Amino acid sequence: MPNIAVLPGDCIGPEIMNAALEIFKAAQQVTNTNYTIQSYPFGGAAIDAVGEPLPASTLAGAKAADAVLLAAIGGPKWNDAKERPEAGLLKIRKSLNLFANIRPTKITPGMVQYSPLKPDIAKNTDFVIVRELTSGIYFGQPRRLGTADAVDTSHYTEAEIKRILEVAFTMAQSRQKHVTVLDKANVLATSKLWRQVAATVAPNYPDVTMDFEYVDAAAMKIVSNPTQFDVIATSNLFGDILSDEAAAITGSIGTIPSESRGIAGPNLYEPIHGSAPDIAGKGIANPIAMINSVVMMLTNTFHDTQTAGVIQNALNQTIEAGTLTPDFGGNATTTSMTTAIIKAIEATKESAYVKTT
Ligand code: NAD
Ligand code: IPM
Ligand code: MN
Fold first, then answer.
1. ipTM score here?
2. Last residue of some domain: 261, 295, 319?
3. Whole-prediction pTM value?
4. Domain count, the chain
5. Which GO cellular component term is one of those annotated (predicted)?
């Protein structure tokens, strides 16, 4: 039986995780599938329980699973912790060797009205950010915090750049066949190396075109001409920043899922947003990104397009009916939205039943 390690995390994390798991359970009833779910403490919740954000038992559970499903971690309560929740997140990514983080931004016709961009600019937005996740300035040494100065180090090896670019080029082959490498090669040595390596990788994918853009200009184009992008390949920090910007095109950061993958072992699926401490406990967190993370997991790890499709259709119907949380200007709660999606899933079951009898 497929086995999923679930990490609800902090603040809105458990709220959206519960919603997504209830929806997932309802969909399994329709498709007669059965996934085993095992929950583990992670982030601030684990600091409170055992004094560290990534307990050994959580890491062992994640390693042994077929996939890891994470909601979000962090919050003001733990900002001064010796080891913060965020350190646990970096550690699990590194320990599972999840070097490629796939962050898709896609707007469906029904969602265009919610975009802060003009409809003509937002419509047909469909690009993927392939973010390097286990190197760059997030992990480079030395790293030092003093009172008079501080140091972070941006470091990339040729091998690290090559493997992330290969993920981006391979992805482009099954999309619009274009890769844009975003960097700051007018200033940074690591960016210059990205361009050198890209020039050696690109010829192996003759069906894919490639161009380079500076990240500052690209940040502008993501909101002024988002449809120019297909696959964006970029470093850890740039990918982090640009994916939140990209999410805003859809009307809320609460919609975009992500997949982190490595060489072997389980992939990790999580929303790109954080734990939203400002709305935690209010019951209004948007569950869409978490639900989309389940859909992405079912599709990419378990190849269960049937269960994924049942969830996706019910979600689309619910969005089209205007059942949306306050971040979209709606008045649904996390629970009422979840109930509406489950109702739509159960209707699928009834119509399937009618069809076969
Ligand atoms: P955030 O993404 O949590 O929130 C930014 C804004 O978006 C907030 O106003 C929040 O209310 C809103 N928002 C985010 N997700 C939402 C949702 N599902 N529904 C409705 N509104 C939503 O970013 P932040 O406030 O900068 O960070 C809060 C904490 O989350 C920090 O501790 C940060 O380190 C952590 N964080 C964790 C992850 C993760 O677990 N992968 C990712 C990003 C940030
Ligand atoms: C994300 C988050 C994390 C990151 C933080 C919480 C460490 O912002 O997943 O986008 O910077 O990678
Ligand atoms: Mn981020």
1. 0.99
2. 261
3. 0.97
4. 2
5. cytosol
